[in-house]
Amino acid sequence: MGTTMDDEAGEFLANVEGGIVPVTCHDDVLRIAYIYIDEGLWDGQSVFDVVEKLHAHGWSFGEGELRFNRTLDIFYLAQIAAAYYRWTSQLNGDDPLTFSDFDAFYTAHHALLHPTAWRSYYSTTFLTQPTTARFYRMPDLQDLPDSSSPLCLPRDNPVSEHVLKLPRWAYTVGRTRHRQTLLPFDTITNIALCTLDAVLTRLHAAYPSTPSFSELHARFWLDEYYEPPIAESKQEALPTNTNTQLEGEEEEIPSFPSPTSDLSPLKDNREAWGPHHFGLNVASGLYDIHSLEAQYLAQVSSGKVVEPEPSKPVFFWCGIPDGGTAFQALQRGWQEEIGSEEEVEFLAAVAMEETAGLGAGAIKMDELDCSIRSYILLAVMQAALVKNMQEREHFLGELERRMVQKGRIGEERAGSWVREALEIMLPYVRVWQGEWPDTEERGEMLRRILVENPLLFARWKLSPVMKQFAFDDAKVDCLGCHTAYC
């Protein structure tokens, strides 16, 4: 699969890149992206590389306030990639597209590519959020084309236009529980349901065609991705396969990966502490989303519990370590840089609840467990209020030392991590004029900062081509987005 870059295409690119031929409309940018993405789908970070190239030349699919909106521009690149794979046959097409095929290609897939196609996928409110403009995010109205089925396998007929929305949210809730055990199981569940209710209710009010909140539906997916903790002695050991890593080391992974695998929250547990890769996991066939959703719909229709259908065959990939499907999915834009609104609201509310028990007044460093991210961020917020620079530096230095001591981050990155977080906090806390607020106001400010700056969660992996500091822990030996098992 791919286009054939003939002389006509090369001449066209030379003319537009040289400013000889003006780029004046959506279709012009689409034609350029059609050529650029040919090489991108087989090399580098694909849609993430191509968007940088478009922006470097001053081109964007957006107009007005949507100009250079990163999510919008990558969305159209992902749509081109989806159309490529539909034109051929997933990864196995025999007839490569040529530059002269563009008009026929555009006509055949006009529904995916036309100038207002984004309105079927993104709400205006969500797309125009500053975070959505800066970082690539999944649509909030329906899934990207074909992204709910495993790559390189026959596509499922979607049971709904946004079948991934609740599973993705439930996955984040489940991983959050594995990452920390500070809050009780029921508390995390209640936070998850309340924040989901608020987000979906707002969305349904603005877009009545979207599903309204259903606690039954939400709990169905929580049950799949989020099991209550059980005594470690009662857990059954998972059968494992040995998987060879790129560096040559060996890692054990579950033979039958499952969203309900109850992984212990150890700090070196890759599934618990690595970035979220839900979209890549779906692409690799780890989760049978459509069968599970069909099971739920059957239960609702019949009013009784429906046993799941026999599992589909388990596919054992070879390669890095999933036959390369996760990386191909990444190149197609199936993995976000920042999560959905319901995920972000949930994580921010969890952080707010975690810090609520620390009491009023200034917090002493000895009171903080620096293995907990929300505590670390609260300490940075407090440091931002310290006017005496010498005192502030001493406080931050002690925070860095404790973070390293707890194994949260490497010594070489601790200083930059804390100071990057401080730069984000400073504009928010100026309103307090150096006075530490009460517990409720402090918690609400932390929640607001996290909602507006969700990169502080470090739950999603930023594209390496972005010149943006990543607030990851830098202790997990993750293979980036080359594997779905991180």
Structural notes for this entry:
The protein is mainly alpha-helical. Helix 3 packs across helix 4, helix 9 (165-179) runs antiparallel to helix 10 and helix 16 (341-355) runs antiparallel to helix 20. Helix content is 48%, strand content 3%. The chain has helices at residues 7-17, 26-40, 47-56, 70-87, 102-108, 110-113, 124-127, 130-134, 165-179, 185-206, 215-225, 270-273, 278-283, 289-302, 325-332, 341-355, 373-385, 389-405, 411-429, 439-452; strands at 3-4, 97-98, 240-244, 250-254. Residues 230-272 and 475-486 have low confidence and may be disordered. Residues 232-262 are annotated as: Disordered.
Q: How would the blueprint of this fold be written?
A:
Blueprint: E1 3-4, H1 7-17, H2 26-40, H3 47-56, H4 70-87, E2 97-98, H5 102-108, H6 110-113, H7 124-127, H8 130-134, H9 165-179, H10 185-206, H11 215-225, E3 240-244, E4 250-254, H12 270-273, H13 278-283, H14 289-302, H15 325-332, H16 341-355, H17 373-385, H18 389-405, H19 411-429, H20 439-452
Parallel strand pairs: 1-2
Antiparallel strand pairs: 3-4
Give me some keywords for this one.
disordered C terminus, mainly alpha, single chain, 486 residues, two-stranded antiparallel ribbon, two-stranded parallel sheet, globular
